[in-house]
């Protein structure tokens, strides 16, 4: 057991650090939830892709570097420590891509991955429906067979970044109604043909959207996996979302480091200082835990439901850290980027509002705790 | 980087676990304390010589090699000064050939009073006491010290006030600070082990105790409390393992990492204890159920070698005072 990076890992870290130091925009990009900000983030992603840094863990043929899991974690540590922009491509690169690698056909991988890595196609996830949130298996949007493909009908909602994104992936019912997990199919569809109604979030920007499908045609080769297999495949995507793919430690380490600087600069009183120290160490615990998990994955072990423990831990840590920052800032805490006196371009307030969604998306923390109790601890249903 | 235990480290822990299952069942913890159950068998597998240099018959290993085995001793609530003997004694007795040889052979159980510790745990079960006096460590045969029991909640891990004549002691050349760090990590590991036992026992009880026609573990309010215990343990353990590595390599962050380990393990274990009692209901509130042995052990260990508040305040100082901490090179 050790915590020593190999020479190769250190070289990779140095390369990433140097590239970021020379390329991360000095000015904060406008929010990716606005049209202009979305496109600015797309441009940034293209720059990353040009340096083969947008999807380092993918095989080279799709634009990656075949980086190991540890190298990918190193990339993330450096990325967030450098204050680089949020990843507008995350639903594609971090959620859909791992699922495409496991369940997609070679033709689908060739067709979708390169454009995803270059941010030509930015993806949105479409699971939730007005009447199917935590109880996703209650979903009613459906797909009907139609000459060589399918027609999609129904209503999805809360689809992050769908207001401006290019493609969507989602679950539709191809079996009889009311069959819950059975008879669901995983579709890939262009958003251009879907009716998209942007929804304004707590921060005032349309970060997610409602999607209405009125018989949109989708050819058969845009089904991921087999028809009827959708639930199992979607659960693979969901475990990427809970686990270390979507929310690697890097971003929380960077937040904890910024929080510590804020506490030092503001002469935090001992009560807040104590909470800051605790949060910093919790981020450290998440980092160490993830290194151990990476090792287990590299050794071929399944992480399975244990990912739910990480999800509760990182999402609650994130809320705690941002809330602490607002408390440290006192009266200036609630100031937004538009305010002349805002700290750090309003990053703390934006981060606070964003952090509050963490315990809700990717399966609420109540649902996660039940999963931990039943599937990790083995308590009766 | 490879933050995972080696096959040897895992094998040692599993051997210790097997030995403790056979020789230190809860009944032995409850009634066999004074016979130091399983100590002879653990000596047989070399547990007490793990950290002793090879030239004295030890294995010359590091704390990182022993930390999982120590966790097992916490899981079993093994009686006797095991953390002190395994982790503190080799550092305190460094350079004392005869004492190290006896230690490695498993002939000497050692308890200690170092750092700000006031009481000596399990002094009556030790053969040798290493006591600091004016910052200097002295080895004192247990028979040559005056022990006063400070009775407490833990009937097994007993605390003693110890007086000794410096003339009766032999000055030893070891390093009390190194010993203190090692024993603190060892106790943190035991707390993790005790917490794992408490969680497993509570899950077992919640799965079989029925009310309202259903196992109480099917109620969400119970499930979620136990899930929170699982999360606390899951994220405390890596801090303990890292502290062992930092101490072995004498890293500049060792003091901070030790405090992080003890604080996190103490909090996780106290949460496990609190939840275990709640999930058991009244039966957990009795002296008859073995649960109380682990509850008391957690309360006792979490106060040992600096309680959570002490370590939290060290951490605050370490992180908020200059220079700013670094996580990686
Ligand atoms: C910022 C944000 C972005 C999102 N992005 C996407 C996206 O891109 N794509 C997408 O498909 N969805 C997205 N979602 C939706 C998200 O997946 C759902 O919000 C989530 O699954 C919860 O569903 P719900 O909101 O309908 O809440 P409900 O299911 O109505 O839950 C309401 C409350 O009841 C609790 N509850 C429900 N059932 C149980 C139970 N069995 N036991 C205990 N408590 C329970 C919940 O924990 C919650 O506290 C996003 C949500 C947010 C906030």
Written account of the structure:
The complex is a heterodimer of chains A (381) and B (329). Chain A is of the alpha+beta class. Chain A has three domains: 7-88, no CATH class; 123-229, Butyryl-CoA Dehydrogenase, subunit A, domain 2 (Beta Barrel); 247-376, Up-down Bundle (Butyryl-CoA Dehydrogenase, subunit A, domain 3). Chain A has helices spanning 7-23, 35-50, 69-81, 90-103, 106-117, 230-242, 249-265, 270-298, 307-329, 347-357, 365-376; strands at 123-126, 142-146, 149-160, 167-173, 184-190, 195-199, 208-219, 223-224. A four-stranded mixed sheet of chain A has the order 1-4-5-8. Chain A is globular, with a radius of gyration of 21 Å. The model of chain A has no long low-confidence stretch (mean pLDDT 95). Chain B is an alpha+beta fold and 329 residues long. Chain B contains eleven helices and nine strands. A four-stranded mixed sheet of chain B has the order 1-3-4-7, with helices on one face. In chain B, strands 2-6-5 form a three-stranded antiparallel sheet, with no helix packed on it. In chain B, a hairpin with a 2-residue loop joins strand 3 and strand 4 (136-141). In chain B, helix 1 (7-23) packs parallel to helix 4 (63-75), helix 7 (176-208) packs parallel to helix 9 (254-280) and helix 8 runs antiparallel to helix 9 (254-280). The radius of gyration of chain B is 20 Å and the shape is globular. The mean pLDDT of chain B is 96. The chains are: A alpha+beta (381), B alpha+beta (329). At the A-B interface, helix 7, helix 8, helix 9 and helix 11 of A face helix 7, strand 9, helix 8, helix 9 and helix 11 of B. Bound molecules: flavin-adenine dinucleotide. The site of flavin-adenine dinucleotide has 17 residues of chain A, from strand 1, strand 3 and helix 11.
């Amino acid at each position: 057991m050790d915590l020593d990076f190999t020479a190769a890992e250190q070289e990779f870290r140095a390369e990433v650090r140097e590239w970021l130091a020379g390329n991360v925009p000095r000015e904060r990009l406008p929010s990716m939830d606005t049209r202009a900000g979305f496109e600015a983030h797309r441009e940034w992603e293209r720059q990353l892709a040009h340096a083969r840094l947008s999807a380092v863990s993918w095989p080279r043929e799709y634009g990656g570097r075949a980086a190991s899991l540890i190298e990918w974690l190193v990339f993330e540590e450096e990325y967030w420590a450098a204050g680089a922009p949020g990843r507008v491509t995350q639903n594609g690169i971090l959620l859909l891509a791992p699922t495409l690698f496991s369940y997609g056909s070679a033709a689908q991988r060739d067709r979708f991955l390169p454009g995803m890595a270059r941010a030509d196609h930015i993806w949105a996830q479409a699971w939730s429906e007005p009447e199917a949130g935590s109880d996703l298996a209650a979903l009613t949007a459906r797909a009907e067979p139609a000459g060589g493909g399918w027609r999609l009908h129904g209503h999805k909602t809360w689809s992050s970044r769908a207001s401006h994104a290019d493609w969507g992936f989602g679950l539709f019912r191809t079996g009889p109604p009311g069959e819950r997990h059975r008879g669901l199919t995983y579709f890939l569809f262009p958003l251009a043909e879907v009716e998209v109604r942007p929804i304004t979030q707590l921060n005032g920007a349309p970060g997610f959207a409602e999607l209405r499908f009125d018989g949109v045609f989708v050819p058969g080769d845009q089904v991921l996996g087999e028809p009827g297999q959708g639930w199992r495949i979607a659960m693979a995507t969901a475990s990427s979302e809970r686990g270390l793919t979507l929310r690697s430690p890097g971003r929380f380490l960077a937040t904890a480091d910024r929080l510590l600087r804020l506490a030092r600069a503001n002469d935090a009183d001992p009560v807040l200082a104590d909470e800051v120290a605790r949060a910093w160490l919790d981020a450290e615990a998440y980092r160490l835990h993830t290194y151990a998990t990476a090792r287990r994955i590299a050794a071929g072990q399944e992480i399975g439901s244990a990912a739910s423990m990480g999800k509760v831990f990182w999402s609650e840590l994130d809320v705690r850290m941002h809330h602490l920052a607002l408390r440290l800032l006192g009266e200036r805490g609630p100031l937004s980027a538009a305010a002349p006196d805002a700290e750090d371009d309003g990053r703390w307030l934006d981060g606070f509002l964003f952090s509050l969604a963490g315990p809700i998306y990717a399966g609420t923390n109540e649902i996660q705790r039940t999963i931990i109790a039943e599937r990790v601890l083995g308590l009766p249903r | 980087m490879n933050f995972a235990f080696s096959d040897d480290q895992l094998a040692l822990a599993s051997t210790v676990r097997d030995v403790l299952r056979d020789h230190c069942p809860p009944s032995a913890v409850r009634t066999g304390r004074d016979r130091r159950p399983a100590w002879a068998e653990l000596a047989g597998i070399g547990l007490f010589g793990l950290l002793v240099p090879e030239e004295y018959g030890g294995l010359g290993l590091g704390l990182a090699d022993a930390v999982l085995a120590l966790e097992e001793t916490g899981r079993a609530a093994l009686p006797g000064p095991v953390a002190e003997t395994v982790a503190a004694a080799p550092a305190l007795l460094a350079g004392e050939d005869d004492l190290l040889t006896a230690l490695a052979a498993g002939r000497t159980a050692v308890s200690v009073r170092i750092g700000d510790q006031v009481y000596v745990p399990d002094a009556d079960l030790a053969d040798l006491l290493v006591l600091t006096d004016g910052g200097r460590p002295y080895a004192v045969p247990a028979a040559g010290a005056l022990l006063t029991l400070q009775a407490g909640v833990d009937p097994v891990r007993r605390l003693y006030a110890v007086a000794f004549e410096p003339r009766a002691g032999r000055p030893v050349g070891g390093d009390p600070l190194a010993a203190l760090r090692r024993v603190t990590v060892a106790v943190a590991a035991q707390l993790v082990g005790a917490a794992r036992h408490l969680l497993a026992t509570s899950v077992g009880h919640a799965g079989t105790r029925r009310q309202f026609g259903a196992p109480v573990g099917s109620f969400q309010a119970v499930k979620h409390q136990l899930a929170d215990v699982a999360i606390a343990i899951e994220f405390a353990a890596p801090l303990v393992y890292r502290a062992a590595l930092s101490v072995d390599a004498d890293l500049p962050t060792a003091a901070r990492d030790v405090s992080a380990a003890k604080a996190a393990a103490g909090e996780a274990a106290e949460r496990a204890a609190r939840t275990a009692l709640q999930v058991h209901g009244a039966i957990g509130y009795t002296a008859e159920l073995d649960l109380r042995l682990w509850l008391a052990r957690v309360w006792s260990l979490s106060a040992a070698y600096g309680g959570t508040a002490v370590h939290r305040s060290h951490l605050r100082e370490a992180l908020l005072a200059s220079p700013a901490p670094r996580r990686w090179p």
